[in-house]
Design brief:
0% of the residues lie in helices and 41% in strands. The chain is an all-beta fold and 280 residues long. The chain contains no helices and 22 strands.
């Protein structure tokens, strides 16, 4: 690390037979370094993160790990310009140094200059805290729906996370990157729903896009799930006797395939559960 051999300013030394050259002395400058601090956007130090200095045109690099105060020092660097990056800070793939605190886009990286025998200080990173989102799942009467499944997803940044509602129907997601998200909730025996700003929809193509910003908590992403319907009855023969083991099918009037089926029990009764809204 830091070793560099230059042709600039070199001199040739003639050497004759049986001659000894003396006083071939060198004065080597000490290599340079880069120092800085890594914090979140509230000033809290980020501990144990790996910081790296590298040059794209050469193999020169240096690595360090932030201490308990978020400080790091990259040592033994030759003169030149370096790209400085954090390796995998929380939920980010990488974070590149810029004079404004850093960016996740490598194209936005700014070089840090190093001179011999000099420490380039103030190469600081500021990592924005990630976002959180929360809400509540209830039925139409306002009763909490424990163990309801909640999914949040996004194409950019790619995200696919899920959780389950607690006993009070509440749920939460943390460590979310900025972006637009689709939120979906479901529970057995209930009509699944996609979140919209005006109350929800069954149609995934009409789902709302929830905008999330860094260092924020977005609350009130609530769902009110409707319980699916049931169809019950009894099958009898022409003499009024119950007919066991008969199959009962629900056929939508729009001609689509069956939406439910049940068999009759000993007393001829049947019960078709989890029936979608519609005409049959």
């Amino acid at each position: 690390m830091g070793l560099e051999i230059l042709d600039e300013g070199k001199e040739t030394l003639p050497l004759a037979v049986e001659q000894t050259l003396t006083n071939i002395d060198f004065t080597l400058p000490r290599l340079g370094s880069i120092s800085g601090r890594v914090t979140d956007n509230h000033g809290e130090p980020l501990v144990g993160l790996e910081v790296e200095a590298s040059q794209s045109r050469c193999c020169r690099y240096s690595r360090a790990v932030t201490d308990s105060n978020g400080n790091s020092r990259l040592e033994n660097l030759g003169a030149g310009e370096y790209t400085i990056q954090l390796k995998r800070p929380p939920q980010y793939d990488h974070w590149y140094w810029t004079s404004s605190g850093g960016a996740s886009d490598p194209a936005a990286a700014e070089p840090a200059s190093v001179s011999p025998e000099t420490d380039t200080s103030g190469i600081d990173f500021v990592i924005p805290r990630l976002a959180a989102m929360r809400g509540t799942i209830t039925d139409n009467a306002g009763n909490p729906l424990s163990q309801a499944y909640v999914l949040i997803r996004s194409d950019l940044p790619y995200t696919y996370l899920y959780t389950y509602a607690g006993p009070d129907g509440s749920y939460a997601f943390s460590d979310l990157l900025a972006g637009e998200y689709t939120v979906f909730a479901s529970l057995e025996h209930y009509l699944p729903e996609y979140w919209t700003a005006d109350g929800g929809t069954e149609d995934q193509y009409a789902a709302g896009r929830l905008a999330i910003t860094l260092d924020s908590v977005t609350g009130g992403i609530d769902f009110q799930l409707s319980r699916l319907g049931e169809v019950t009855g009894t099958v009898r023969d022409r003499h009024g006797a119950p007919v066991p083991d008969a199959d009962v099918w629900l056929l939508p009037t729009n001609g689509c395939c069956s939406s439910g089926q049940a068999g009759t029990v000993a007393d001829g009764s049947f019960r078709v559960m989890d029936v979608q809204p519609g005409s049959y």
